[in-house]
Design a protein that fits this description.
heterodimer, A: mainly alpha, MetI-like fold, 10 helices, globular, B: mainly alpha, two-stranded antiparallel ribbon, 2 strands, 77% helix, disordered C terminus
Chain lengths: 274, 320
Amino acid sequence: MKRRFINGLMTALCGLALLLALVPLVSLLWLVISHGFKGLSWDFFTQLPAPVGETGGGVANAIAGTLYIVGIACLIGVPLGVGAGVFLAERGDTPVGDAIRFTAEVLSGVPSIVVGIVAYGLVVLPMRRFSALAGGVALAVLMVPTLARSTEELVRLVPGALREASLALGVPQWRTSLRVVLRTALGGIMTAILLGVARAAGETAPLLFTALNNQYWNWRADQPTASLTVQIFNYAVSPYQDWHDKAWSAALVLLLLVGTLSLGGRLLSRSRVR
Amino acid sequence: MSAPPRLQEAQPRRVNLPDRAWTVVLTVLGLAVLGVAAIIIAELLRIGGPALRHTGLVAFVTTSIWDVTRDVFGAAPFIYGTLVTSIVALLIALPVSLGLALFLTEMAPASVRSIVSFPIALLAGIPSVVHGLWGLFVLVPILRHLIEPLLANTLGFLPLFQGPQIGLGYLAAGVILAVMILPTITSIAIEVLQTVPGSLREAALALGATRWEAIRTAVLPYARAGIVGASMLGLGRALGETMAVTMVIGNSPTIRASLFAPGYTLPAVIANEFAEASGEMHTSALAALGLLLFAVTVGLNIAARLLVRMSRRGPARVAA
């Protein structure tokens, strides 16, 4: 009887853990939606931030800035990450490959703020100013390890018979890699890229002292650029109620952006796998 | 992958040239990962070096006065705050995520598992700054008005739970970190638990063990190394987590015993001061904090990955 009781107790406790884990999630989502929805308006998506004391205004430049910085990050990070992943899958069964694989795993655990310092040293110091490019470099460094690992796994899933068939037809290796192997894995790789982009768009810490912030529109890669995440942070820690409301609304926009990207990624991979 | 090289030999030379180029391109991209790691270390040393030489490594990590106007850099309060908040986070998150992982792998039907795995992935994808927003406007008031008075009234004899209850502080940071590392630990723990051979579980059950006894005697011992690894990865995330902590820690460079007191962490001070550093030495000191953080998290990660790998391979020697 006692043993049955303990069994039931532990099962109940483990079930309780599920509830405990879901409480903050549900609370967070509910509050972001309920607080954030009030502030959403056409202006919020199209206007520049209003100065202190004035109501209205939006975060249009921050939304654009996030997309801009993430775009730069993709230009740098995607070729590097995917290329490294293909290398690991096709030429990686060596000690060097093992070392790269392990390095990528460990790099994915490096705090993003540390990567921010590195981008500061690489880009901000030589250019002597904060810039979208610096933010993009930081996010790219964060994308590469995860992208490399998932690309490797996806390329390894491509059936060997496909590769061999292509080689047997006399297609050179590089074309086989590009046209047959990469093409087959493309759906999955797109998913991995979208998930990486979603993660990058949600990063704040590495942007604080690389892209900094900007109250105006900016499309120059060598100028400070606003981002949704940094804007949320500045609004949240400000003493103004109006800015707190804006922080919630901007957080809702950010969640929608990140959610759409990762959901899109997941749907993409589902439709490809069939 | 032994077939392609033989084919390569059979082909005429001029076809080989693009193939060689392709190999070179791939190799360069692969080695770039190692390059990135090298650049991270080199840059941190380059920027952080001057402050470390100025202060001395031992004084830097053991003294507790941080006065940037006089170039006095003592990182002890930040190190203390980082450790305390991460340990609080792990103490809260580990039992919950282990319970959750056991519930999902050992107890719940498969349908529940597939339903629940989505919100857990969702939780992992929520940006840190949004966690911080929630922490600042929801968690902190709850702590101030409800949890902290409760803890002070019941466990107030411990120095951990004394002092003014303002909500912002080590406890708030620890709780928000727990929420953030929960998905990390849970997903790796699930991965580890799934590698436990069914025969072990079945053998225990066949001997008359209840489900919990089978978990305790057969499943957990087998998965122990992997679970330790999972918690170390969670700890690594907690140590380096920046935004949410910066928003709820209270930003006070002091060392206090009470969990209710405001403190400061390594990432938080970097986040707050880096963009407006008062001079090159200040920037350098902040980068040195980053170097410290990098060294600790990388060390933890290497150890954790090795443990998870070992436990994936089977009943690890460390687990026996």
